[in-house]
């Protein structure tokens, strides 16, 4: 399979190349040239498969030609049968009639990012060992990506890992999960800024890697990396098959800030999975909601909320959807993205926006309603939600088009990662760390507070880590 840039000018790459590239050379994001599509009969035949076997069927077309079938199967077994604490991997819990949450927090770092990043580490190890190449992972996190990336990639022999997080703006559990993992190739940088600052510095570094002086190259672990999106497609098929798909449609509500997780659902639908509705669930940082509801894409002041993983104002993966809405015309999309730089507010042609609205709805939930939803759901079912999942549940209840269609909210994180929101909800319960993290707050931390400056970050990356000495 070949991958092309959303902006039309960068060369097409195979999977191995796109895994190591991140942003395309023209500033765009890579997407498959042609999306694989499965028939109703094929999808129906997957009912009852293990998560590992289902993952192989869904993902192998994306890696075929770069990774042999036996090697890919082994990576998937190592990921989903060894790294996850629940045998179902992504179990479904019922809240009400035709209302479900899919628990995506049974991986080692208790967040949905594990589904992609545990696999990404194994993919990188395989490809880099084959190429005898060394790389630098540079990523930004609003809370969960960082720990999942470090956990997934810390054993990679040919990788240095540098993760930026906004100083004092992630939860204590999120920070501890990053900063207590030891390794001479692991570097946690607490940036004196917000997540968008961190993300922008990562993007600029990928655009100009000269600061590495040719000693290595950058690899993305943020959701701009195609492998992240690819792995997330699988659990949409998993939920659908568990609830009677493909013989019936299923709807999904997805807490999202960067648009990657819900874009995976959009791709699942385009690959043949019957999906009735996709709901974009946001907090007060509602740029995606304003686009879906009003056709207005414009950053505003960033708000710090009880759902910090969605405290994002510029959604990296949204460009991938716009590429399809513009008929996969890279030149037209490049012009639109260029206008976004100068015009702070962008709208698209009405007919393109209406095409998106046939599938997508959206809703925004403030902190007060988030806490109220946590308590309501706990009172109704004794299911304790984290604040992001609560936003997803409330959005689903507000936007649901058809009560006869099963509604699945993606439970993106374990509630123990966000004790402040659980306490403020008044649910009267304190979530506990699972056994493998029971001593988390006793572990020694290691991180560096660094100024909100591209030069400071690039200078640190340049002078630290094995890449500076080994290449």
TrEMBL record:
<protein>
    <recommendedName>
        <fullName>Threonine synthase</fullName>
        <ecNumber>4.2.3.1</ecNumber>
    </recommendedName>
</protein>
<dbReference type="InterPro" id="IPR036052">
    <property type="entry name" value="TrpB-like_PALP_sf"/>
</dbReference>
<dbReference type="InterPro" id="IPR037158">
    <property type="entry name" value="Thr_synth_N_sf"/>
</dbReference>
<feature type="domain" description="Threonine synthase N-terminal">
    <location>
        <begin position="2"/>
        <end position="80"/>
    </location>
</feature>
<keyword id="KW-0791">Threonine biosynthesis</keyword>
<dbReference type="InterPro" id="IPR001926">
    <property type="entry name" value="TrpB-like_PALP"/>
</dbReference>
<keyword id="KW-0456">Lyase</keyword>
<dbReference type="GO" id="GO:0004795">
    <property type="term" value="F:threonine synthase activity"/>
</dbReference>
<feature type="domain" description="Tryptophan synthase beta chain-like PALP">
    <location>
        <begin position="95"/>
        <end position="331"/>
    </location>
</feature>
<dbReference type="InterPro" id="IPR004450">
    <property type="entry name" value="Thr_synthase-like"/>
</dbReference>
<dbReference type="InterPro" id="IPR051166">
    <property type="entry name" value="Threonine_Synthase"/>
</dbReference>
<dbReference type="InterPro" id="IPR029144">
    <property type="entry name" value="Thr_synth_N"/>
</dbReference>
<dbReference type="Pfam" id="PF24857">
    <property type="entry name" value="THR4_C"/>
</dbReference>
<keyword id="KW-0028">Amino-acid biosynthesis</keyword>
<keyword id="KW-0663">Pyridoxal phosphate</keyword>
<dbReference type="Pfam" id="PF00291">
    <property type="entry name" value="PALP"/>
</dbReference>
<comment type="similarity">
    <text>Belongs to the threonine synthase family.</text>
</comment>
<dbReference type="InterPro" id="IPR000634">
    <property type="entry name" value="Ser/Thr_deHydtase_PyrdxlP-BS"/>
</dbReference>
<dbReference type="Pfam" id="PF14821">
    <property type="entry name" value="Thr_synth_N"/>
</dbReference>
<comment type="pathway">
    <text>Amino-acid biosynthesis; L-threonine biosynthesis; L-threonine from L-aspartate: step 5/5.</text>
</comment>
């Amino acid at each position: 399979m070949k991958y092309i840039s959303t902006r039309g000018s960068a060369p097409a790459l195979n999977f191995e190349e796109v895994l190591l590239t991140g942003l395309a050379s023209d500033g765009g994001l890579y997407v498959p040239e042609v999306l694989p599509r499965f028939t109703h009969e094929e999808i129906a035949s997957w009912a009852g498969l293990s998560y590992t076997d289902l993952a192989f069927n869904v993902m192998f077309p994306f890696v075929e030609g770069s990774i042999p079938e036996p090697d890919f199967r082994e990576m998937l077994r190592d990921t989903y049968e060894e790294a996850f604490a629940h045998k179902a991997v992504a179990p479904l819990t019922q809240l009400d009639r035709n209302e479900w949450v899919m628990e995506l927090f049974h991986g080692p770092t208790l967040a949905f990012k594990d589904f992609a990043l545990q696999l990404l580490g194994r993919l990188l190890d395989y490809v880099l060992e084959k190429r005898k190449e060394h790389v630098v992972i540079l990523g930004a996190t609003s809370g969960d990506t960082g720990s999942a990336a470090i956990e997934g990639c810390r054993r990679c022999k040919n990788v240095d890992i540098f993760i930026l997080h906004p100083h004092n703006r992630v939860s204590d559990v999120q920070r501890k999960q990053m900063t207590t993992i030891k390794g001479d190739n692991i570097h946690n940088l607490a940036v004196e800024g917000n997540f968008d600052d961190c993300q922008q510095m990562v993007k600029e570094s990928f655009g100009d890697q000269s600061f590495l002086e040719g000693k290595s190259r950058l690899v993305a672990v943020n959701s701009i990396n195609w492998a992240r999106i690819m792995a997330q497609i699988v659990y949409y098929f998993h939920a659908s098959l568990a609830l009677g798909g493909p013989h019936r449609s299923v709807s999904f509500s997805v807490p999202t800030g960067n648009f990657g997780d819900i874009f995976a659902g959009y791709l699942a639908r385009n690959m043949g999975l019957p999906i009735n509705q996709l709901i974009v669930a946001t907090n007060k940082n509602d740029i995606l909601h304003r686009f879906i509801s009003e056709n207005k894409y414009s950053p505003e002041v960033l708000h710090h909320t009880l759902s910090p993983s969605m405290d994002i104002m510029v959604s990296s993966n949204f460009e991938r959807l716009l590429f399809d809405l513009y008929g996969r015309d890279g030149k037209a999309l490049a012009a639109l993205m260029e206008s976004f730089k100068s015009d702070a507010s962008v709208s698209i042609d009405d007919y393109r926006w209406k095409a998106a609205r046939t599938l997508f709805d959206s809703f925004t939930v403030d902190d007060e309603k988030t806490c109220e939803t946590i308590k309501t759901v706990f009172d109704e079912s004794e299911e304790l939600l984290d604040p992001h999942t609560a936003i997803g549940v409330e959005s689903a209840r507000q936007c649901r088009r058809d009560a006869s269609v099963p509604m699945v909210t993606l439970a993106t994180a374990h509630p123990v990662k966000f004790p402040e929101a659980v306490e403020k909800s008044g649910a009267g319960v304190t979530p506990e760390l699972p056994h493998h993290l029971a001593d988390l707050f006793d572990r020694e931390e290691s991180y560096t507070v660094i100024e909100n400056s591209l030069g400071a970050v690039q200078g640190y990356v340049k002078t630290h880590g094995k890449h500076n000495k080994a290449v």
